[in-house]
Design brief:
By secondary structure, the chain is α/β, with parallel strands linked by helices. It contains 15 helices and 15 strands. 53% of the residues are buried.
Length: 466
């Protein structure tokens, strides 16, 4: 059922919020020992909250799960999926979470994430592996892998998620869900963090339908004057025939699977059947330079985060307290000079300009969401030799080389998603393809900033046609 159906059932008293919460708790208790998607529960509090009157709210008491990373609820765990913060309790409620509550959702718990959200798989040492309910030998992706797995397992009608480099869209691709990364500045931020990886990261949801994503976007969208990034919604005439660019090429020249190519070519045919003009074309940006800037900014952000944690703990964080990827990013960030950070952000702005010019010629840009279907849970991304170097990162002069190598294999699976995070554009992953083994692979549409309505329109046309 979609969200509107739940709203209708609750409005007509055919079901109660408490019954929905009880059903969600039962499903989690029955299934999650295997899937491992829900890592922090608030079942008793949610049952008490379900007795409240939600009739004047938009979502009428529908249960929801939030993410264990960057979606803080006062009085609840705020671990960042890290052993370092396993006893941390949030002192504030983030504005995004407060809006969820204001709209009438009941939060029943938190979903798993990789430590600090640095991976496109969900396997933190604190919480363990999240399994893909479609195939328990596969990953559900990351960093919102727990959210995706929980939704596919039907624990709740909708899950909150976040996307700093593809963390909504990658799990959507691997699990057959709809995954929107909204435009920068469109979602509530603060009060403790307004920039979110310098604007690369944004909170939103994973959904089962396009209509659910649109309903949630229109309910949540905002434009906060005092926030560093503002949102301007474009005036889109969605009925027009569109000119759409598509690409089969990885922006970092990595291999693209036949599954991904088939998904795009099938979508191209569907678009042409709908009357749209589809052209093979690539925007003129340097994919390697863009990834270099992305890793640099994330390194600096990680250093700032760990330094803040050290201040709160009143001691130094040691290598044994965080995972090797986090430690490497921390040490790399400490080595970055101020002018290098400015240069990286300047290139983000230049790439935003390149994409804006690209969208003067093409309404939408179509790529695979991921280069492959969901990888195996046991896939090795980092070999023993590299792990040894990661542990000795402090003594290595070329720290960036280690950063690139530790992400190289995982990036090959997901080279398409970071662009929209860096430019601030909206991007939508749609579940339009399954391979011969029945595994989904999403296709991604990017639009110019503020043009979510265009994404929703093309998505409705395609999901109706395919």
């Amino acid at each position: 059922m979609n969200l509107q159906t739940y709203i209708n059932l609750l409005t007509s008293n055919q079901i109660t919020p408490k019954e929905l919460v009880e059903a969600s708790i039962k499903k989690i208790n029955d299934l999650d020992q295997t899937i491992n998607a829900v890592v922090e529960e608030r079942f008793e509090l949610a049952l008490k909250e379900a007795d409240k009157d939600y009739s004047q709210t938009m979502f009428k008491g529908i249960p929801i799960l939030i993410k264990s990373l960057g979606q803080n609820l006062k009085g609840e765990p705020s671990t960042g999926a890290s052993k370092l913060l396993k006893t941390s309790i949030s002192k504030t409620t983030d504005n995004f979470v407060a809006k969820i509550i204001e709209l009438g959702f009941i939060i029943i718990g938190q979903t798993s994430s990789p430590e600090f959200g640095f991976k496109n798989i969900t396997d933190s040492s604190l919480y363990g592996d999240v399994k893909n309910p479609l195939d328990l030998t596969k990953t559900a992706g990351g960093s919102s892998g727990g959210a995706a797995a929980a939704l596919v397992a039907d624990y709740v009608p909708v899950v909150a998620a976040s996307d700093g480099g593809g963390s909504i869209r990658i799990p959507a691709s691997y699990t057959g869900l709809v995954g929107l990364k909204p435009s920068r500045g469109s979602m509530p931020t603060g009060p403790t963090n307004y920039r979110g990886w310098q604007g690369a990261s944004v909170n939103f949801f994973l959904t089962k339908t396009v209509n659910d994503s649109e309903l949630l976007f229109n309910a949540m969208k905002t434009n906060v004057v005092y926030a560093p990034f503002n949102y301007v919604q474009a005036d889109i005439k969605v009925s027009k025939k569109l000119k759409i660019a598509y690409s089969l090429k990885s922006p970092v020249n990595t291999k693209v699977s036949q599954d991904a190519k088939t998904a795009i070519l099938k979508t191209v045919k569907a678009l042409e059947k709908l009357g749209h003009t589809v052209v093979k074309a690539n925007p003129n940006y340097d994919g390697f330079k863009l990834m270099e800037s992305y890793y640099l900014v994330n390194g600096v952000e990680t250093a700032a985060m760990i330094k803040n944690i050290e201040t709160s703990l009143n001691r130094k964080v040691t290598i044994d307290e965080i995972e090797p990827i986090s430690w490497v990013l921390y040490q790399y960030g400490l080595s970055i000079k101020g002018f290098e950070m400015v240069e990286a952000l300047n290139y983000w702005d230049q790439t935003s300009h390149i994409m804006n010019e690209f969208h003067q010629q093409y309404d939408l840009f179509l790529t695979p969401t991921t280069a492959t279907v969901a990888p195996d849970l046991q896939k090795e991304y980092i070999n023993k030799n590299l792990i040894e170097k990661m542990h000795n990162i402090e003594s290595i002069s070329n720290k960036y080389e280690i950063v690139w190598k530790m992400f190289e294999k995982s990036l090959a699976h997901t080279p398409y998603t970071m662009l929209a995070n860096i430019t601030g554009q909206p991007a939508l992953s749609l579940p339009l393809h399954q391979n011969d083994d029945g595994l989904p692979l999403g296709v991604q549409f990017m639009a110019n900033k503020g043009e979510e309505d265009l994404l929703f329109e093309i998505a409705r046309q395609l999901t109706k046609d395919l």
